[in-house]
Amino acid sequence: MAITNIKASNFKSFKDLDLNLSRFNVVIGANASGKSNFVEIFRFLKNTEDNNLDDAISLHGGCDSIVNRKAGRSAPFGVRITSNREMACGSGSTSVHACETVYGFSLRVGKKGNGVIIEEDNVIQTLRISDGENQVENGSREKVTAEELRLRIEVSEGTPKVGVEPAEETPHLKNDPRFSALWPYLETPGPRMQQTEAKTLLVRMRFLGFLAPWESLFGGIGAYDIDPHLAKSPFRMAGKAVLQENGENLALILKQIRADPEKSRKLHNLLHYMLPFALQIGTRPYLGTSILLKLRETYYDDALLAHLLSDGTVDVMALIVALFFEDKDVVIIEEPERNLHPHLISGLMELMKDAARDKQIIVTTHSPEVVKHAGVENLLLISRDKEGFSTVSKPADKEAVKIFLENNLGLDEVFVQELWGP
């Protein structure tokens, strides 16, 4: 899965964001330009799926912290993403594939600050319906794509409405057992949904059988802001099996990776690529209920415990885990260059580009070295306009940048001197 487009309106410092994303994205910009607010969009999406709406908003500091201040508290705010994640329904010779999903919502603060109102909440899926198989020359069989249609589902006051494009396909769907879960909702009016929670967005509702394969639309997003001091601290053995956003459970995750010989070999190869002096990652129990990270280096016979390791060494371990061992489709990392010597940045960027073959990578940075090795085609520049709104542009499209690069001025120099042009 990759997020191919993201839109946000009146969200924090953004007024009208409409941005196409690639497999590898390096977000740059001055202090207070909006880089962290950009990452917060993804965190907010995850929180709306994991919590009811009021709790999700509370986790981000309340409406006053989310709604753009210049737009005003009464202005609607929302997010919309387009994902190319493929989902399948059906088996055998016939199946339905969702090849694109567009999901979004628009919210408004209620009168007298009485919570939020869901103004818009819908999902649009582009479906390819395969009927039967054809035998090809080599004797194998291939599915025949009979048609493509768009399915739109929206919720208004608890009632789902389903629309199909082209509209003439609606009678066909009513007789197709693969869409039996949709049949009641293709009538007007459709049945009312059974909501177990107040203010629940569509992304949390499992009321349509066909949509069940998505399970978690935003669960494949991992956003990391690594704190090496927390990662060095003892962590309880009974913890989550996924790397936490701040890396605090790194020791536990490394222990799980080391239990698999193939994964352990890959981990040590990647670590040695970045840090040639690093020989063997290990863990040890701490006070019976916790676990502590350790590392053996070429300089010593005994392993060093976590508190003796440099922040940069621990950061590298956590970054490798996030990039190559977490089951995430989208990996977002804030300022991955922190605590790293500039000499290591080129290697880190190569690892990120390699990881981007299998998942989408988004990083934010202040580092000229990261910019230097990122490639101009991967840069996204966030800046503030005259009114203070955050805007995003692509340096690769700027004529001034093209001229500087043609005259052998490096990207890092353009970045430091802010020569991006209008």
Structural descriptors:
single chain; six-stranded mixed sheet; Rossmann fold; 422 residues; alpha+beta; globular
Could you describe the 3D structure shown?
With 422 residues, this protein is of the alpha+beta class. The chain has two domains: 3-214, no CATH class; 221-417, Rossmann fold (3-Layer(aba) Sandwich). It has twelve helices and 18 strands. It has helices spanning 35-50, 53-59, 63-66, 170-174, 228-232, 250-258, 261-274, 311-324, 342-355, 368-374, 399-406, 411-417, and strands at residues 3-11, 14-20, 24-29, 77-83, 87-89, 94-109, 116-135, 141-156, 159-165, 221-224, 235-236, 278-286, 290-297, 304-305, 330-334, 360-365, 379-384, 390-393. The strands form three sheets. Strands 1, 2, 4, 5, 6, 7, 8 and 9 form an eight-stranded antiparallel beta sheet that branches. A hairpin with a 2-residue loop joins strand 1 and strand 2. Helix 1 (35-50) runs antiparallel to helix 2 (53-59) and helix 7 (261-274) crosses helix 8. The chain starts with a strand and ends in a 5-residue tail after the last helix.
Proportion of β residues?
Answer: 25-35%
What distance lies between the first and last C-alpha atoms, to the nearest angstrom? 33 Å
Q: Low-confidence runs (pLDDT<50, min 5 residues)? A: 208-213
Q: How can the largest sheet be summarized? A: 8 strands, antiparallel
- DSSP, total strands: 18
Q: Tell me the series of helices and strands, N- to C-terminal.
A: EEEHHHEEEEEEHEHEHHEEEHEHEHEEHH
Radius of gyration: 24 Å
Share of helix, binned: 25-40%
Structural class: alpha+beta
The helix tally amounts to: 12
- Overall pLDDT score: 86
Which shape, going by the Cα principal axes?
Answer: globular
Number of domains: 2
